[in-house]
Amino acid sequence: MSSAIEGNDKDITNLPGVGSKTAEKLEKAGFGDLLSIAVCTVGEMSDQGGVSDRVAREIIQAAREMLDMGFQSGTEILEKRNDVAKISLGCSHIDNMMDGGFETGSITECFGQYGSGKTQLALMLAVSAQQDYPGSTVVYIDTENTFRPERVVDFAKGQGLDPDEILKNIKVARAYNSDHQMLLSEKVEEIIKEGNDVKLVVVDSLTAHFRAEFVGRGTLARRQQKLNKHMHTLALIADKHNLCVYVTNQVMAKPDQFFGDPTEAIGGNIVGHASTYRIYLRRGRKGTRVAKLIDSPNLPDDECVFMITSDGIDDA
């Protein structure tokens, strides 16, 4: 992890202008550690933390200095990449395509038409995360009422795990609108502070509420602004706590594309740039599914074929 994350436990009362009362207000507003303060804006701290712009600017600057948020050499970054963990899906085709599994400290987006397997991968990951990291916790934000504990039981039994133990360590919340969805993503911090070792955060699906609530071109800018903030929160959680964020996404057909596959993910460049890895899922022949890695900072474009069975995700 970065030095910023290692310095995360330093007491915020060491910052200039932060006494016990101010620290209490900041913690209630979600600024309970140096990193959350260092990466916020003056406006955010002023509005949510109840301090003046001048005080907010001093607090933020001091936090950034304490965390030494300057440049680092490529060698240092390479060494810190050793802290990155992988969650294996148990399907060698997908695991090989992802160089060992789904990476912590990043966001992986899977998009595709309905029935392409997005939710099945999410449920399987919730089981696999606990298999790879026993005792860990999974946070599952369900926006379309698709979480099925019965399916988790099937996957757990298929992996030889105790279904009751697996389900007990999955914290599920149903999001009823986009604001509720964003609030739930911010509450992941509280779950971690309660002593839970969160290794995976699932948002299934990412854009359903945003797509339903913001209709028409006139609302596009506001929708993208909120979506950008939501993705920023997820990215910060992933980086700060070295956990994997897996989001599913809906698709639409590009009307101006006459050749090739017209399928395009919802959310545009906002979601595309914020996601570290992007996987396009589609149906294949004879009940198979095709996963195509279309964007990655360190892996080549690739695709593989897999099958969704009664007790897991298997090679085809």
Outline the structure in words.
This protein is an alpha/beta fold. Helices cover 43% and strands 21% of the residues. The protein has helices at 3-6, 20-28, 34-38, 42-49, 53-67, 74-80, 92-97, 118-132, 149-158, 163-168, 178-186, 188-193, 208-213, 220-241, 268-274, and strands at 86-87, 102-103, 106-112, 137-142, 170-174, 198-204, 244-249, 251-253, 263-265, 277-283, 289-295, 302-309, 312-315. The strands form 3 sheets. A 9-stranded mixed sheet has the order 5-4-6-7-3-10-11-12-13, sandwiched between helices. Strands 1-2 form a two-stranded antiparallel ribbon. Helix 4 packs across helix 5 (53-67) and helix 14 (220-241) runs parallel beside helix 15 (268-274).
Question: Largest beta sheet: what is the strand line-up?
Answer: 5-4-6-7-3-10-11-12-13
Outline the low-pLDDT stretches. 1-9
What number is the mean pLDDT?
91
Radius of gyration: 20 Å
Number of domains: 2
Count of extended strands: 13
The global form is: globular
Major sheet characteristics: 9 strands, mixed
Short description, anyone?
It contains 15 helices and 13 strands. It has 316 residues and is of the alpha/beta class.
List the helices and strands and how they pair.
Blueprint: H1 3-6, H2 20-28, H3 34-38, H4 42-49, H5 53-67, H6 74-80, E1 86-87, H7 92-97, E2 102-103, E3 106-112, H8 118-132, E4 137-142, H9 149-158, H10 163-168, E5 170-174, H11 178-186, H12 188-193, E6 198-204, H13 208-213, H14 220-241, E7 244-249, E8 251-253, E9 263-265, H15 268-274, E10 277-283, E11 289-295, E12 302-309, E13 312-315
Parallel strand pairs: 3-7, 3-10, 4-5, 4-6, 6-7
Antiparallel strand pairs: 1-2, 8-9, 10-11, 11-12, 12-13
Helix pairs in contact: 4-5, 8-9, 14-15
